[in-house]
Amino acid sequence: MFKKNDEIEVNIIDYGTDGEGVAKADNFTIFVSGGIKGEKCKIIITKILKNYGYGKIIEIIEKSNKRAEIDCKTYPRCGGCSLRHIEYQETLNIKKEKVQNLINKNVNESLKVNDCIGMENPFYYRNKAIFPISTEKGVPGIYAKRSHIVIPFEECKIQTKISQEIARFICENWKSTIYNENKNTRCP
After folding, report:
1. Main-chain phi, psi angles of 89, to 5 degrees
2. Is residue 77 one of the residues assigned to a domain?
3. pLDDT at 174 exceeding the cut of 90
4. Digit-coded pLDDT (tens) for 5-41
5. Which residues of the chain form beta strands (DSSP E)?
6. Angle, CA 30 vertex, CA 80 and CA 24 arms, to 5°
7. Domain for residue 157, yes or no?
């Protein structure tokens, strides 16, 4: 059986619920952050649980033609996007498949999910803006995945440009209103 820090080669055979790659090794399921269906990767095991584990890519041996060039300096550290490394059309296919799988598991009759309708320009579209502010850096950012660590950003490709301008304006003009979560106080 595998243990933490083992390095193995795997084939990514599917996607998990959060878009991570899914691999099987010796009939053991491993969720691989950043893996794309169809890729062969060398991974390091980062966590082992009873029925599955987690891995991180060390090397992509056979790269998927669905892999996109990453256009964001903050990705994959931030928790705002999880599929930025995958071509847009493939992300639509992943979402369709996710809905189809849910229907297949929960509905007795046979229903077919239609293709997702994508955007002409899948940038700067999010209509809800939450920008935590780092008390140390005094700049807006995005929380790192599963944490309250603020990752500063230069530009966010999914938030509207105006919301990013507003967040910067607030940071530049109202630093005394920033709340320090660790100290339970406002910054001086």
Report:
1. -60, -35
2. no
3. no
4. 999 999 999 999 888 999 999 999 999 999 999 999 9
5. 7-15, 21-25, 28-33, 40-48, 52-62, 141-143, 150-152, 179-180, 185-186
6. 135
7. no
Q: What is the C-alpha to C-alpha distance for residues 183 and 136, in angstroms, rounded to an integer?
A: 12
Does any domain span residue 95? no
Spell out the residues 6+ positions from residue 145 whose beta carbon is closer than 8 angstroms to its own: 76, 77, 78, 79
The model's pTM: 0.80
Task: Round to the nearest angstrom and report the end-to-end CA distance of the chain.
Answer: 53
Q: With respect to residue 30, please indicate whether it lies within any of the assigned structural domains.
A: yes
- Asked if the bond preceding 76 is cis, omega within 30° of 0, the reply is yes
| Chain segment 114-132, per-residue pLDDT in tens | 999 999 999 999 888 888 8
CA distance 184 to 156: 28
Q: What CATH code is carried by the domain that includes residue 41?
A: 2.40.50.140
Total count of residues recorded for the chain: 188
What is the tally of structural domains in the chain?
A: 1
Q: Whole-angstrom Cα distance, residue 42 to residue 93?
A: 25
Half-sphere exposure of 188 (CA within 13 A, CB side): 0
pLDDT, position 26: 93
> The domain containing residue 54 runs over which residues?
7-62
Q: What's the CA gap between 144 and 78, in Å, rounded?
A: 4
Could you tell me if 158 and 80 are in contact, meaning their C-beta atoms sit under 8 angstroms apart?
A: yes
